[in-house]
Every structure is written in C-alpha cells, then in structure tokens.
Design goal:
Aldehyde Dehydrogenase, Chain A, domain 2; 22% strand; binds nicotinamide-adenine-dinucleotide; binds the ligand O=CCC[C@H](NC(=O)CCC(=O)O)C(=O)O; N-succinylglutamate 5-semialdehyde dehydrogenase; EC 1.2.1.71; Aldehyde_DH_Superfamily
Length: 487
C-alpha cells in the first residue's frame, strides 16, 4: 500500500496544515487510512503567493518542456500504478479491477490533453500577419469529488498545467490520501515547486480558496448543490473563469429489444457501477407499461439481486463495493424510505449488509405512481417509471432540471433518433451504458449539471484564453493612406 503523510504541499515543502484535524476512513473496514490537518486561511494565502511567484517562469517555458513534464508524470503513474490503484480502491471502496481502470484513465489523459491542446488551443497563423495564440489564466484552483479521486481532478490538473497555469489542488475531504499520492507523482516527475500545490481540507478550505482575490479560475467537479453555491459566489466576477462539472438525474429509456440480457447488462452498468456513485449513473429507468416492460423489470430484478458486493480486495472480485461512508449509506436508506412514503413501490429493497455499515445492496423502486423530487440520489438506487408510449417516455425523461447523461435502449433506430432530437443532455447514448464516457470527447452537461464548460477533451478550452494578434516585424506604411492623412 502506498505510504501517505497527511501533509500539505506548499511552495515545494511538505508540512502540516494550520487547520483542524480530519481523517479518511476506509469504508469497507471502517479503519482510518489517512489523518492530517486542513489548510487554513494563512496556508491558502501562502500557497497563492508562492503560485503567483512561480507563474511567470512556468508559463514562459517552451510548450515542449511542459509536455515533457507531463510525460514524466505519466511514467511515474505507470511505475506506481498498482499501488495507486490499491489506494484508490481502499479509500473509495471501489473494487480493485475498477480502480485499475481509473489509473489507466489518468495515464491516458496525458496524451489526450496534449492532443486536445494542439487541436483546440494551439497557435494558428493566417495571411496578413494575423496570429492566434492561447495564454494560461494564471493561478487556478481544482476541487475534486470523492468518487474518482484520481481521474477527475487529474482531468483538470493535466490540461491546466500544460497550458501554463499554476494549480492549487483541494481533493475531496473523503479522499485526501489519493490526492496526496497523485501530487507526490508530479513531484517525483520533477514539476517545479509551487506550480502544483496540495491544500487538504474540508468545506472551510474550499471556501478560503474560492474566495481568495488572487484566484484566476476554479475548475470544480462535485455536486450541483456546491456548484450552485460557487456560481452565486462568482457572480459579478467575470474576470475569474469557473468550470462546473456537476451531478445529474439521468434518464434511461427502455424500448423493445431482442437481446434482453444485453439490455439488462447495459442497465446494470448504467445504474450500479461504482455502487451508483458516478455522475453519469442512470437514476430513472423508463420502461413500457406492457408485457415486455414487466418481463424486463423481472429479469433486471433477478440479475441485480445476485450482483456480488464486497470489499475492494475480495477474491473473487465483487461487482461493486460499499458506498463512500456509513453516513452516506444511512442517507440513502432514508431517501428510499422517503420515496416509499411518497408512494414508490419496492421492487428490490436496498438494505445494509452485515459486512459493514457502508455496504448497501442495490435497490429498485417503482415510482410510476408518485411525484418524485428531481434530485440526484448518489448511490445504488434506481427508480423505475412505467409509461404508455415512446412520447410519454421522452416527456418523462426530460422532466428534470439536470442534463448530464441520458440513454436509450431499443432496437428501433428511428425511435432512438426521435429521442436524440428531443433529449436534453450532454451525453446521449444508444444501446450503451450511460456510464463510461470517452475522454477523447467533450464531457459535460446542461441545465443544473454544469455551466456550459465541458471537460475531458474540451478541458483545454477553459484552461487557456485566446489572444488574436496582428503582427509585423516593423511598422510599415500601407500602400494607400486614409483620406486626409499626409505622411
Ligand atoms: N459532472 C461530473 O463530471 C462529475 C463527476 C464526478 C462527480 N460529480 C458529482 O459530484 C458529486 C459527488 O461528489 P462530492 O460529494 O465529493 O461533491 P461535493 O460537492 O460535496 O464536494 C466537492 C468538493 O467541493 C468542496 N466543497 C464543498 N462545499 C464547498 C463550498 N461551499 N465551497 C467550496 N468548496 C466546497 C468539497 O470539500 C469537495 O472538495 C455528485 O453530485 C456527482 O454527480 C460530477
Ligand atoms: O462520475 C462522473 C464521471 C463518470 C465518467 N466520466 C468520465 O470519465 C469522463 C471522461 C473524462 O473525463 O475523461 C463516466 O462516464 O463513467
């Protein structure tokens, strides 16, 4: 297992924070796996001062030099990949097989970001001495969520550094160990001091970072609730760039298919991968209210009931692990009880396992006859809604203020095209899970799922701003002077 220290990295020095102590708990065992002190306002201020001082040198470096540092970081990740995967798995609770895919995505992000920078934010020249270049914003903060503690902050940090920004990184307070291990990889790769700094902490640290006057931009992945707070906080500050990657209440429409089990597979991957803790997870399954729909739900229930649930290192490996904490498991069970109180019928109950308080089984509720709140329930709880027609399915799918991912399962292409035209989401899939988006494409949502700054391949766009220049090595008189001008 990778060793971590519980320290901050400020101006190239690992040291204690001045704030209160907090722990990271392995959700499977309940053991503390990391303990450290949060960064307080003074720590945050010191990090901003150091980042500002480091910025000119870092942004002046040749682009190729920054690319080389990114590749050195990728090599370090490659060398440490097994240990890093084990740490991710243990801290989040996801199975080792899945944590390995997270590390692979982190490594893959390097070449994708280099390609994206060239295609979306590189330099171009046009006739007449017109040149387009891009410049970094300056000092930016990255706040990460707990469900992908490596891959998602990495998806902001890599393109931000490549563009020449200095970054202050605050991992989720639930996954500080992975945040530390990731920053240690950058340091081992030779990144100069203060170009990337680590500020551990809870909400107060995030608030101090977001409110600092030296901040030029904030790249945030997390809940829509926190995203809305930050959006309000940044109102009237058009000089600061804010990229929000938020949650969803994602619909998945099911229509007749020949291969029932292939369709069930896609639903399970959509709703229960990572114990339902992916922003792209399907939350609402919209099925026909007929014999096919009933057969579909019966088979789904049978398959879901037998999903293997276990700890990250169990053998054989489980499909899914615990949720992030016992507190979150309790909240999910309360949510289930609340929905039942509103009239939802239990198809398969979510319940706690004796294995530990953070282990819950996946639940299925039939919510056809009740008014459900338009909320993201971030866990393995799928609501089923029966509808009479495709038109009704589309109406129900769009009945949300969110717009992250959406899916359509069905053999009829014309029906899918009809849905695609009416859908309101940044990711719309056909006969594929709603999860597992490609890093080679933009990734982001509309509505309450973001602020129109898609990440993944388009992260390059919010990491640099365009500068258009008309250039000439020497002043030159034009062939024709303006009327009334004599030279
Ligand atoms: N769209 C995406 O790309 C994407 C990806 C992963 C997760 N998510 C979403 O993230 C959520 C799960 O992650 P989470 O629970 O860690 O999110 P969260 O919003 O609780 O926390 C995210 C980060 O914000 C910080 N924070 C919380 N309140 C703050 C405040 N008032 N000011 C400044 N910082 C504050 C936290 O400390 C943490 O670092 C889900 O809603 C999920 O859908 C979205
Ligand atoms: O939890 C939210 C992210 C889910 C994940 N999305 C990506 O990995 C986007 C691609 C990228 O950022 O490179 C998914 O779709 O499962």
């Amino acid at each position: 297992m990778m060793q971590t220290t519980g320290l901050l990295l400020v101006n190239g020095r690992w040291r204690d924070g001045g704030g209160s102590t907090f722990d990271s708990i392995d959700p499977a065992s309940g053991d503390s796996l990391w303990q450290g002190k949060a960064a307080n306002r003074e720590d945050v201020h010191e990090a901003f001062t150091a980042a500002r001082a480091a910025f000119d040198d870092w942004s002046d470096r040749a682009h190729g030099e920054r690319e080389a540092l990114l590749r050195a970081y990728a090599r370090t990740l490659e060398q440490r990949k097994e240990a890093l995967a084990a740490l991710i798995a243990r801290e989040v609770g996801k199975p080792l097989w899945e944590a390995r895919t997270e590390v692979a995505a982190m490594i893959g992000k390097i070449e994708l970001s280099i390609r994206a920078y060239g295609l979306r934010t590189g330099s171009t020249e046009a006739a007449g001495g017109h040149v387009l270049r891009h410049k970094p914003h300056g000092v930016v903060a990255v706040f990460g969520p707990y469900n992908f503690p490596g891959h998602l902050p990495n998806g902001h940090i890599v393109p931000a550094l490549l563009a020449g920004n200095c970054v202050l990184f605050k991992p989720s307070e639930q996954t500080p160990a992975v945040g530390e291990a990731m920053v240690a990889c950058w340091q081992a790769a030779g990144l100069p001091a203060a170009v990337l700094q680590l500020l551990q902490g809870e909400r107060a640290t995030g608030e101090a970072l977001a409110a600092h006057q030296e901040l030029d931009g904030l790249f945030f992945t997390g809940s829509s609730r926190t995203g809305a707070i930050l959006h309000r906080q940044f109102a009237g500050m058009s000089e600061k760039i804010l990229a929000l990657e938020l949650g969803g209440n994602n619909p998945l429409i099911v229509r007749p298919v020949e291969n029932l089990d292939a369709a069930i597979h896609d639903v399970v991957q959509s709703a229960f991968l990572t114990s339902g803790q992916r922003c792209t997870c399907a939350r609402r399954l919209i099925v026909p209210d007929d014999a096919f729909g009933r057969r579909f739900v019966a088979r789904l229930s049978e398959v879901v009931e037998h999903l293997r649930i276990g700890a990250w290192n169990d053998e054989p490996q489980p499909f899914m692990g615990p949720v992030i904490s016992a507190a979150v498991a309790r909240q999910l069970l309360d949510t289930q009880a609340g929905l039942i109180g509103l009239g939802a019928k239990v198809v398969l109950p979510m319940r706690t396992l004796e294995r530990g308080a953070a282990f819950v089984t996946p639940g299925l509720l039939d919510a056809s006859d009740c008014e459900m709140p338009d909320e993201e329930h971030f866990g393995p709880l799928l609501k089923i809604i029966r509808v009479a027609s495709l038109a009704d399915a589309i109406t129900v799918a769009n009945r949300t203020r969110y717009g992250l991912s959406a899916g359509f399962i069905g053999d009829d292409e014309a029906e899918y095209r009809q849905y695609w035209r009416r859908s309101r989401a940044g990711i719309v899939n056909w006969n594929r899970p709603t999860t597992g988006a490609s890093g080679a494409f933009p990734f982001g949502g509309i509505g309450a799922s973001g602020n129109h700054r898609a990440s993944a391949f388009y992260a390059a766009d919010y990491c640099a701003y365009p500068v258009a220049s008309g250039e000439s090595a020497h002043p030159q008189l034009p062939e024709k002077l303006a009327p009334g001008l004599n030279l």
